[in-house]
């Protein structure tokens, strides 16, 4: 660097969460005048497109720094200590503290528990064992530093954690009064951390905490007088430092030591179990109906999406038998090659007429319908506006499309309007569940369509849980709202109330023609068996003919909510999905197990299906549940909640 003056550029991006600013990313550079633009742009890019989320606000500060006020330091030397377990890593920290002249390492290490959730670092007087940060919550933030760059170094807007950590550790190690530093990441999946000092250098330890733990933080170890303490804080926060000769990479690719390949998998499993998030499957030995047999025992099934109890309907059974006799089973190819039969076409015509659209296209599952359709409708440069509680298949479709994903607050049409205004785009789509799969509430369709129309955006609605459930005759979301207008892309499944399997999209002929030609999940997968198509067809016919199933289901919902109310559990659901929020993952399991012991099969839904700490029972009703069964179930839930 030759110019007399340099510029410091600092970026801080944040987003709003429940009204408060949440930090997304921050970074700083110290660069020469001609490079200011390019680095500033790189930092803006980095702050605006961070994996932690879209920034709502970005702060960029640029100011001049006199070269004579900058201290140049040589980077600490780097060494890596491989340890097999995190306990051994903790031993390494102890050893390091002893080497640093600290006789009571255990006492110092106890402070690591307090660094949890601190924004900055702790400044710890190692002799008196007291914390010296003026603001305990904020901690000390070491800033105003960068590495020296050579001509031709890449700029890169991604964070280089490795280099940035060495720059910081070098500044800290050279601070008056600081004898060392301990740093553990708060990322639950990242267990490598470091200890450092001027004498020892930068010592990476490959495992410093238990996998899956969010407990991390940074301690600056201080030894000195009160006056030196002020000096140290001033140096850490205000002194401009440029670090020379920062090593570029952990190691050359060729020396990279290969990890034990099953290590991460094993750890992930242990962590799931420790956090009560491990899932095991129950095995059902009978047909899917309001009662099922598990391990030879009878259970009332209140967890199934087979809301109208159509899956084992005689019409479906005979459709399967007859079509098997006629077609055998496998379809032998994708729809565009040899896998299209008269029954495939008939099912598409049927669903189009049931949903009052020009045409329809069938996909192998509802999951594939969403993923394939969204990724066909939008691409890089386009925008998807998506409800924050949308089904995982919608989220995955958005991700695969590479379009910009803007999530809006759950079923909040004002927020949707706001997000559309804030994110102008040429082509965009707004997508929502009709009935939300874990909360059971209903999309405000008329306003949703108004907004899509006003803004020339495609509307897409997922009817997985609305068809057969809401609307006077079970036709779903449009019938429920008595909405005349059509949704551009009306997606649904045969796998829920229709008692079959597969997904579909209904809409205008041009939409369906487009999807048939572009949707990869349709094109590159063998089509479902004609037998499945025949079963789905029979399922829709049952739904159309036996409206009493829909009416009974709707009655059961009302009845069950009233029963729950008797135990102080207030749920106002109009759909077959009745969420009983419990919160804690372990409690939710306890309640679900209690119900199981009493002959009721109800799932406990936990993270990642719902947010952490929002674990719940997801009661799913069927038209064939009796009043006595519902009454008993409400009573058991009431008891279980009192017990916990
Ligand atoms: C179940 C579900 C899907 C996926 O349908 P499958 O046929 O089970 O793959 C899609 N969207 C929603 C809202 C769902 O509940």
Explain what you see.
With 644 residues, this protein is of the alpha/beta class. The chain folds into four domains: 6-69, no CATH class; 71-263, no CATH class; 275-310 and 548-643, Aspartate Aminotransferase, domain 1, CATH 3.90.1150; 314-544, 3-Layer(aba) Sandwich (Aspartate Aminotransferase, domain 2). The chain contains 19 helices and 28 strands. Strand 12 and strand 13 form a beta hairpin. The termini are far apart. The structure holds pyridoxal-5'-phosphate. Pyridoxal-5'-phosphate is lined by residues 365-367, 370, 391, 393, 433, 437, 462, 464-465, 493, 495, 503. Its EC number is 6.2.1.14.
What's the short story on this structure?
With 644 residues, the chain is of the alpha/beta class.
Layout of helices and strands:
Layout lengths: L4 E13 L2 E13 L3 H13 E2 L2 E2 L2 E10 L3 E5 L3 E4 L4 H14 L5 H5 L12 E4 L4 E2 L13 E3 L13 H13 L4 E7 L8 E5 L3 E5 L11 E6 L3 H13 L1 E5 L18 H12 L16 E4 L2 E5 L12 H14 L14 H13 L4 E5 L2 H12 L5 E5 L4 H10 L2 E5 L4 H10 L5 E6 L11 H10 L3 E5 L14 H5 L7 E5 L9 E5 L1 H10 L1 H4 L6 H16 L1 H19 L11 E7 L1 H13 L2 E2 L1 E3 L9 E6 L6 H17 L1
Parallel strand pairs: 6-15, 7-13, 8-14, 10-15, 17-26, 19-20, 19-21, 21-22, 22-23
Antiparallel strand pairs: 1-2, 1-5, 3-4, 8-9, 11-12, 11-14, 12-13, 16-17, 18-24, 23-24, 25-28, 27-28
Helix pairs in contact: 7-16, 8-16, 9-10, 17-19, 18-19
The protein binds pyridoxal-5'-phosphate.
* Ions and ligands: pyridoxal-5'-phosphate
Decide which structural class fits the backbone: alpha/beta
Tally of DSSP β-strands: 28
* Average of the residue pLDDT scores: 92
Catalytic activity: 6-carboxyhexanoyl-[ACP] + L-alanine + H(+) = (8S)-8-amino-7-oxononanoate + holo-[ACP] + CO2; heptanedioate + ATP + CoA = 6-carboxyhexanoyl-CoA + AMP + diphosphate
Family: Belongs to the class-II pyridoxal-phosphate-dependent aminotransferase family. BioF subfamily.
Subunit structure: Homodimer.
Organism: [Ruminococcus] torques
């Amino acid at each position: 660097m030759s110019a007399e003056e340099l510029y410091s550029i600092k970026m801080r991006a944040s987003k709003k969460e429940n009204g408060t600013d949440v930090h997304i990313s921050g970074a700083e550079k110290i660069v020469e005048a001609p490079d200011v633009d390019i680095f500033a742009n790189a930092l803006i890019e980095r702050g605006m497109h961070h994996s932690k989320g879209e920034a709502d606000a970005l702060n960029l500060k640029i100011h001049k720094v006199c070269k004579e006020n900058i201290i140049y330091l040589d980077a600490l030397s780097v060494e890596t200590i491989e340890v097999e377990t995190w306990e051994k890593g903790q031993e390494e920290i102890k050893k390091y503290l002893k080497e640093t002249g600290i006789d009571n390492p255990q006492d110092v290490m106890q402070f690591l528990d307090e660094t949890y959730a601190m924004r900055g670092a702790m400044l710890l007087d190692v002799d008196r064992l007291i914390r010296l940060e003026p603001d305990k919550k904020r901690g000390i933030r070491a800033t105003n530093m960068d590495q020296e760059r050579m001509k031709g170094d890449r700029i890169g807007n991604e964070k280089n954690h490795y280099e940035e950590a060495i720059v910081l550790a070098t500044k800290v190690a050279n601070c008056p009064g600081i004898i060392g530093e301990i740093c553990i990441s708060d990322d639950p999946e990242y267990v490598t951390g470091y200890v450092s000092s001027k004498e020892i250098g930068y010592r990476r330890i490959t495992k410093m905490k238990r996998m899956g733990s969010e407990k991390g933080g940074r301690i600056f170890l201080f030894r000195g007088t009160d006056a030196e303490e002020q000096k140290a804080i001033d140096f850490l926060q205000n002194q401009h430092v440029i670090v020379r000769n920062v090593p570029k990479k952990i190691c050359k690719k060729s020396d990279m030591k290969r990890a034990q390949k099953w290590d991460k998998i094993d750890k992930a499993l242990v962590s799931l179990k420790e956090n009560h998030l491990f899932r095991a499957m129950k095995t059902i030995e009978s047909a899917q109906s309001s009662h099922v047999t598990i391990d030879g025992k009878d259970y009332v099934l209140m967890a199934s999406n087979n809301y109208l109890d159509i899956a084992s309907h005689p019409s479906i059974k005979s459709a399967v038998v007859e079509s098997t006799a006629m077609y055998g089973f496998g379809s032998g190819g994708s729809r565009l090659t040899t896998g299209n039969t008269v029954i495939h076409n008939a099912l598409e015509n049927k669903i189009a007429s049931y949903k009052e659209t020009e045409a329809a296209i069938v996909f192998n599952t509802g999951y594939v319908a969403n993923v394939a359709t969204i990724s066909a409708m939008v691409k890089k440069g386009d925008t998807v506006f998506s409800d924050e509680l949308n089904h995982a298949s919608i989220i995955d479709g958005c991700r695969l499309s590479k379009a910009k994903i803007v999530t809006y607050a759950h079923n909040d049409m004002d927020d949707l309007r706001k997000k559309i205004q804030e994110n102008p785009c040429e082509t965009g789509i707004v997508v929502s569940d009709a009935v939300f799969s874990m909360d059971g509430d209903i999309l405000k369709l008329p306003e949703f369509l108004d907004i899509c129309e006003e803004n020339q955006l495609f509307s897409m609605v997922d009817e997985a849980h609305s068809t057969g459930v809401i609307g006077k005759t079970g036709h779903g979301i449009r019938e429920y709202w008595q909405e005349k207008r059509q949704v551009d892309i009306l997606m649904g499944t045969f796998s829920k109330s229709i008692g079959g399997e597969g997904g579909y999209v209904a809409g205008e002929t041009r939409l369906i023609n487009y999807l048939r030609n572009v949707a990869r999940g349709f094109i590159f997968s063998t089509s479902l068996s004609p037998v499945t198509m025949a079963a789905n067809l029979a399922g829709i016919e049952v739904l159309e003919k036996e409206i009493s199933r829909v009416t009974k289901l709707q009655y059961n919902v009302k009845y069950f909510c009233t029963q729950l109310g008797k135990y102080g559990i207030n749920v106002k659901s109009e759909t077959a999905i009745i969420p009983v929020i419990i919160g804690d993952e372990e409690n939710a399991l306890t309640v679900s197990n209690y119900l199981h012991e009493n002959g009721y099969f109800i799932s406990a839904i936990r993270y990642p299906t719902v947010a952490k700490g929002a674990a719940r029972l997801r009661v799913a009703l069927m038209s064939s549940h009796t009043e006595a069964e519902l009454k008993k179930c409400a009573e058991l839930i009431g008891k279980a909640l009192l017990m916990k």
